[in-house]
Amino acid sequence: MMQEETPFISERLLRLLRCPMTGVGLELKGDSLVNEEFEVSYPIVDGVPVMLPSPKRKTRKSKKNKV
To answer: Does any domain span residue 12?
Structure first.
């Protein structure tokens, strides 16, 4: 059975990264960088954050709020 690896992002890099759409700092949650305030997430693929804005990458919180 394969174990999923948590992406490695250094604390220093994490402090520098900002949401490209809002400029707000991001949090590491699982395999994504998340902007909780604006409910947007960016996946980390092969250790590299994919910081392209996309309406398809809303956080789970935003999906729950829609009726």
So the answer is: yes
pLDDT band at 56 (very low <50, low <70, confident <90, very high): low
State the pTM of this model: 0.68
Structural domain of residue 39, as residue ranges?
Answer: 8-46
**Is residue 67 situated within a structural domain?**
no
33: left (phi over 0), alpha (psi -120 to 50) or beta: beta
Query: Which pairing describes strands 32-35 and 48-49: parallel, antiparallel, or unpaired?
Result: unpaired
Q: Which residues fall within 8 angstroms of residue 24, CB to CB, at 6 or more apart?
A: 18, 35, 37, 38
Residue 61 domain-assigned? no
